[in-house]
Specification:
21 strands; 13 helices; Alpha-Beta Plaits
Length: about 450
């Protein structure tokens, strides 16, 4: 469909929702007509995928959306050169279903496989192996980009380094990504050799992270965000490598069931979260050790529950993800966890990980050397706002930054301090593209 039609669109966090006008192309040759139509109607556009961004970087209520999920084809797969070219609306789930059977895997993947290739590149996603492979942008070789004048460009780092770097991690603001050519990794099975190690406090986490980086390609930790005192920062450290033997069949996925509707907001409180976290930590200690597990189970535990965001109720949730530099990572992380624990707010899904020193190619890419903390906060209105403002101050003082893909309320001062290249990036923003996020942080 090449016309813009009314569509109810909301963020994955379910806090932000607004009436939009959206077009739904089924073929790439329809894109130019859609873009030019938007230009004639005076709509600033934004291409979107499966809309897993938590906040407003995927919203554009005053303009128009181009829903790219109908453009979901594999264009070419060169096994010898390990290059796959796909349309921007193809999901990681669909791509993995093809390449894993052929003995390949994505070089970088976030914690869900239900993202599109265009969305992954536009947010320059990272994963459990950042210390080894960096962000996905490092593995992109070519990009198709539709500008607001209807012209489709083919970008490479060599042909147009500035626009290429602005597009990777550029939140869809340089134009509509139409296709991506990506280098993929060879694997020998669809099985992971994994190890779970309980740790009792934050110091133990940092020790485990330091000793694991050289021997394990993938590391990540779940933490109990409400633990206090000597147990502050306790959790389960997970590390792993691709197994050299085992089935190459990825299976049908790991989704056990789907949340049919939003839970009452009262279900997400200090007592339920604390009880769950205590039980999860106890169970993690009980199951500690090494085991071989299916590849989807290792990389995408959140996908085991479809529409898990509904657990946070009709008021939704905010996600907070920060990164703070190595020189202050221990003190800043401890201060954030103390603040969260004292507030009684937090989530079941708190994640702690160290980033490596591999530079991200995008001008607005989030990862940098240091420690990243990510967790969800049920939306309790002003109480939640005050907590997140206090966390902002800690991150700002530490010289860190927040992740636009996870954000729904980052103050402009936080964005500009965390991304000093934002003004250089702005030179490459296509005036025919915009988003609620960009208007909020660039114009204040």
């Amino acid at each position: 469909m090449t016309r813009f039609e009314p569509a109810d669109v909301r963020s994955w966090g379910n806090v932000l929702q607004a009436e939009h006008h959206a077009a739904f192309p089924a073929w790439r040759d329809q894109l130019a007509r859609i873009v030019l139509s938007g230009r004639q109607e005076g709509r600033a556009l934004l291409a979107t995928g499966l809309r897993r961004s938590y906040g407003d970087s995927g919203l554009n209520p005053e303009g128009g959306l181009i829903d790219m999920t109908g453009l979901d084809r594999i264009i070419d797969f060169d096994r010898e050169r390990r290059l796959v070219r796909v349309e921007a609306g193809l999901s990681f789930d669909a791509l993995l279903g093809v390449i894993v059977r052929q003995g390949f895997f994505l070089p970088v993947t976030p914690g869900t496989r239900f993202v599109t290739m265009g969305g992954a590149v536009a947010n320059d996603v990272h994963g459990k192996n950042h210390h080894i492979n960096g962000t996905i942008g490092r593995w992109v070789r070519r990009i198709g980009l539709m500008r607001s004048n209807g012209e489709e460009l083919e970008l490479t780092l060599e042909s147009d380094p500035q626009l290429f770097s602005a597009t990777i991690g550029g939140l869809g603001l340089t134009g509509a990504i139409t296709w991506v050519e990506l280098e993929v990794l060879p694997i020998e099975s669809a099985v992971m050799e994994a190890e779970n190690i309980p740790f009792d406090n934050l110091d133990m986490f940092f020790s485990l992270a330091a000793e694991s980086d050289n021997a394990f390609d993938y590391t990540v930790s779940w933490i109990d965000c409400l633990a206090k005192g000597a147990s502050l920062g306790r959790g389960i450290f997970t590390r792993g490598n691709h197994a050299k033997t085992g089935s190459r069949l990825p299976g049908r996925g790991n989704t056990k069931f789907t949340m049919p509707l939003s839970l009452p907001s009262l279900c997400m409180n200090r007592y339920s979260i604390s009880a769950f976290n205590s039980l999860y930590f106890w169970n993690g200690k009980r199951k500690a050790g090494r085991q071989n597990i299916p590849i989807y189970q290792f990389f995408y535990p959140l996908d085991s529950i479809g529409r898990w965001n509904r657990m946070y109720g009709s008021k939704g949730m905010y996600q907070f993800q920060s990164v703070v530099p190595p020189a202050v990572e221990k003190d800043a992380t401890k201060e954030m966890l103390k603040t969260i624990s004292a507030s009684g707010q937090g989530s079941f899904l708190a994640v702690l990980k160290t980033f490596g020193a591999i530079s991200s190619p995008g001008m607005l890419s989030f990862p940098r050397p240091g420690t990243t903390l990510a967790l969800d906060f049920p939306n309790h209105g002003e109480t939640t706002s005050r907590l997140m403002a206090r966390l902002d101050d800690i991150v700002l003082e530490a010289g860190g930054r927040l992740y636009p893909a996870k954000d729904g309320r980052m103050p402009a001062r936080m964005f500009k301090a965390g991304y000093p290249a934002w003004q250089d990036f702005a030179k490459y923003v296509d005036s025919g593209f915009s988003s609620h996020f960009w208007k909020r942080v660039s114009q204040e």
